[in-house]
Design goal:
It is built from 10 helices and 21 strands. Strands 3, 4, 5, 6, 7 and 8 form a 6-stranded antiparallel sheet that branches. It is globular and about 80 Å long.
């Protein structure tokens, strides 16, 4: 191998080697270090073949970016390789003041998890499962979730063009969305049927537990003896806020486990003052139920406090941290998983409904059919359970 080739391999391998040394995807333990370096040797062989045989001169920077993105993409949708500009945006912390209300994941392209209630995306009819093929004409084929969310954010009043594909449709749809200020969506309640209250939780914030408590108390005064909590399309908010809300309903037991690499599981248990709301519960879930909503649902269902009605959830309950690399770039890595009270993983598996109800499929631009069969089935389920207990 020529000296130029060795230099290029060194440039390409250094971030990967650093990643391996801090305990990343290449090396699980010190004892497995040999396996890590075997992969690095294979990587060197591949680079050598490219440098010596590719028809044109190789752009080293482009190859390095491709290799790093490939490593991160092989982990999970929320892990990502960040360049220097993206690192700066990540470390700034504060999000842009405006957005379109989309939460994204990756599946070949970016894919919609959910559209926030009342947001520009929701009003445009964007639904969970829609593929985002391009943002302002830029293909999302090699775009991380972090970068996709950053491209959608911006100054309120500015617009962004999103190219969407739904289901088996042959032609994509371009949708122009005007960014709006990002504001929390409050928890709202109403009577869904005689004796049954309905509460919509669109996101989990520090205020959610208090709002849930207040809405439930109002519904009880209005005659509710049972409660349906709607978590469909709920993918927004904070994991700790979801656990705080779960404490309202679980009087004892384990709400969840935290699992970090190389450490024992850490149980998150109910406290003596928890479980003040004792109404029978049903939770409405679907493929847009994600993150904090899944953690909340797992805590209640895993302790026998609620039946899950609807469709399997996405499977996304984890935290990420930034690992900086010598070249000024970095890796956004999932470092902590939340597990259900049973000890089963939530991420990549999701929650399975106790009563399955399929959501209707509609073509892009078409309204949903009237009625809400998932809510109707939950009301029926709670009423039947009350009769059986009488």
């Amino acid at each position: 191998m020529t000296s130029r080739g060795r230099l290029l391999v060194l440039l390409l391998s250094a971030p990967i080697l650093a990643f391996a040394l801090v305990g990343g995807v290449m090396g699980r333990t010190v004892a497995q270090g040999g396996e890590s370096y075997r992969h690095l040797r294979i990587f060197e062989d591949v680079v050598t073949l490219i440098l010596n045989n590719y028809v044109e001169d190789v752009d080293v920077e482009r190859i390095m970016h491709g290799a790093m993105h490939g490593l991160a993409d092989g982990l999970d949708p929320d892990s990502a390789y960040l360049d220097a500009e993206q690192i700066k945006a990540f470390e700034a912390g504060a999000p842009m003041p405006g957005g379109v209300g989309l939460e994204l994941t990756r599946q070949y392209y970016l894919r919609v998890i959910a559209a926030r209630d009342g947001s520009p995306a929701a009003r445009a009819g964007i639904r969970p499962g829609d593929y985002v093929r391009a943002i302002d004409g830029r293909s999302t084929r090699d775009t991380s979730v972090f970068e996709g969310m950053r491209l959608l954010a911006g100054k309120p009043g500015t617009s962004v063009r999103v190219t969407l594909l739904r289901g088996n449709a042959a032609e994509p749809h371009d949708v122009e969305l005007v960014r709006e200020p990002v504001a929390p969506v409050k928890t709202r309640g109403r009577l869904a049927a005689p004796g049954t209250g309905y509460v919509r939780v669109a996101e989990f914030t520090r205020a959610t537990a208090g709002e849930l408590s207040a809405e439930t108390a109002a519904l009880v005064k209005a005659g509710a003896a049972r409660l349906v909590i709607d978590l469909r399309g709920t993918a927004f908010g904070d994991l700790d806020a979801a656990l705080a809300a779960a404490r309202l309903f679980v009087p004892k037991g384990t709400l969840a486990f935290r699992q970090e690499r190389g450490a024992a599981r850490q149980a998150i248990d109910a406290a003596a003052a928890d479980g003040k709301i004792t109404l029978p519960l049903a939770l409405l879930i679907d493929g847009g139920t994600s993150g904090p909503a899944e953690l909340f649902g797992a805590a209640l269902a895993g302790n026998g406090r609620a039946a899950l009605i609807g469709e399997r959830t996405l499977g996304r309950a984890a935290r990420q941290k930034l690992v900086r690399l010598p070249n000024g770039h970095g890796l956004l890595l999932t470092h902590l998983l939340y597990l259900a009270p049973s000890g089963d993983a939530i991420s990549e598996k999701g929650l399975t409904p106790d009563v399955a109800v399929e959501q209707p499929d509609v073509d892009f631009g078409q309204p949903l059919p009237p009625g809400d069969p998932t809510l109707d089935r939950a009301v029926e389920h709670l009423a039947n359970a009350a009769k059986a207990a009488a």
